[in-house]
């Protein structure tokens, strides 16, 4: 049952990044859109994410519940030493969701709409930024559980160049995913061309920030190069990610947009595999040396069995209806 829970944890994190990341990315795309085109972008975005934006956070909730119940040591370490970026990320999620509802469903259209738009746009940038910072922090080796002062324990655990670089890389990936998804939602050729340009821009940004991540990893002694290029699985994942990106742009130039989302999702999945496989099952790298492993920090057997069965049975109830939700709202209006 240990492996079942770990599989659900990995799946929840992956789906939150792919679906929630594209959700955040829609706001990022809007941020980098001119004023005259923002209304069109907003309309397309509402059609794409409006019906299912709430469901995206289900994966984050599942991941948090699994960490809290099955891996209390990991949950405690993150919630204590990374409580500042976690709080900022959660505030961003709340602010973004609230602004989305009010700007979309508010019966009174007045100057507050502009306030809602700004809150939505900037929280769409801040939230994935700090999501990436948190992800970078757990593998950066900067979390000091033996720290004696506030800054060392709660600030420098996440405020470092590597974590910030991962945060910016995450923002670029979210923007890229959203642009690719929105291409398929666009009916007019003009809108498709506009989102293609956004996808190109975010793709370039992802490459640049990816290089920054490797540079920061080198100077801060994070063995990222070893994880990715000196590991057989990591190397294969990088090759597959590169090939899928080439195929994605080839099909895009040919005007074939149906499988673009699958290719974009596959590419991001391979990037995550390349980064995480080599240090699995270690979840958190510590500054004093060593790491907190998923296997070593798992809860008692009875707790694990109860959670495992709850996840398995719950998936049979939730996933079919979630799939039906996606299917119904992907049907084009006549």
Q: How would you portray this structure in words?
A:
The chain is built from 13 helices and 2 strands. The chain is mostly helical and about 325 residues long. The chain has one domain. The chain has a two-stranded antiparallel ribbon with strand order 1-2. α1 packs antiparallel against α2 and α3 packs across α4. It is globular and about 55 Å long. The N and C termini lie far apart (about 45 Å). Belongs to the cytochrome ubiquinol oxidase subunit 2 family. It is a multi-pass membrane protein.
List strands and helices in order, with pairings.
Elements: H1 2-31, H2 35-49, H3 53-70, H4 72-81, H5 83-105, H6 112-140, H7 150-155, H8 161-185, H9 189-219, H10 224-229, H11 232-253, H12 260-276, E1 282-285, E2 291-293, H13 301-330
Antiparallel strand pairs: 1-2
Helix pairs in contact: 1-2, 1-3, 1-6, 1-8, 1-13, 3-4, 3-13, 5-6, 6-8, 8-9, 8-12, 11-12
- Name the structural class: mainly alpha
Low-confidence stretches: none
N- to C-terminal distance: 47 Å
Mean pLDDT: 85
Total count of helical runs of at least 4 residues: 13
> Helix-strand pattern, N to C?
HHHHHHHHHHHHEEH
Radius of gyration based on Cα positions? 20 Å
The major β-sheet equals:
2 strands, antiparallel
State the shape. globular
Give the strand order of the largest sheet, numbering strands 1, 2, ... along the chain: 1-2
Number of strands: 2
Q: How many domains make up the coordinates?
A: 1
Strand content: under 5%
Helix content: over 70%
